[in-house]
Amino acid sequence: MNTVVENHQPVPEKLNPWLSIWVRPKVTARYAIEKMPMSYLVVLVLIGGIFEVLDKAVTKNMGDNIPTPFIFLIALVAGPIFGYIGWWIGSGIAYIIGKWLGGIGTYKELRAVFGIVNIFYIIAGIVWIPDLIIIGSSIFSSYIEGGFGATIWLFISAFLSIVFGIWGFIGTLFCVAEAHRFPVWKALITILIPTVILLIFVAIFAFIVLLIV
């Protein structure tokens, strides 16, 4: 039996999604679906893609092999492209799986909520300012320069990233739940299923590579 949660809360005529999404993600998601132009959401997606590439550059220590200016160039050029493509694909997967779980959201509604959740990543990207001031370009390298102060800030920055990441993930669950009008636990399944499938494919690919090598 499908469980559909109807939205009885009126959508505000005016809402600041940059503030409301942190404490009222469902209302913000509905506002994005019904009130916000898709062009605005696309801009959020493109900017979010830039910060996503920068984050990956840090985790992969790209600065060990690539000059910092080139890393920023890659982020500015490739980030929006990957962000835009990922937005369409991610929204489509969430739409299909959500429908399978009994959701009633349209593909356009899923694109809207996956667009608005980029606010989480963009706000989290503000941490990049003190990162570059305190740590500098070595943030992209496996060896952090700057002494004790830089090391302390690195732990603070990592902690803030974890907090923003968890908050963003939970907010995304509520936004997907609102788009599909079903419980949050179904939104969790909607997001986890493609992740599990991807991990399985990666594990199979890695196993095949090991056999070949």
Please describe the topology of this protein.
Layout: H1 17-20, H2 25-34, H3 38-59, H4 68-100, H5 107-116, H6 118-124, H7 128-135, H8 147-180, H9 184-212
Which keywords apply here?
mainly alpha; 213 residues; single chain; 9 helices; globular
Largest sheet, if any?
none
User: What is the residue-averaged pLDDT?
Assistant: 87
The first-to-last residue Cα distance is 49 Å
Please state the structural category: mainly alpha
Pattern of helices and strands: HHHHHHHHH
Overall shape: it is globular
Question: What's the tally of helices?
Answer: 9
The amount of beta strand, in percent, is under 5%
Q: What number of domains?
A: 1
Tell me the helix content. over 70%
Low-confidence stretches: none
Number of separate strands: 0
Walkthrough of the structure:
This protein is 74% helix and 0% strand. Helix 4 packs antiparallel against helix 5 and helix 4 (68-100) crosses helix 9 (184-212). It is mostly helical and 213 residues long. The chain has helices spanning 17-20, 25-34, 38-59, 68-100, 107-116, 118-124, 128-135, 147-180, 184-212. It is built from nine helices and no strands. The N and C termini lie far apart (49 Å). It has one domain (17-212).
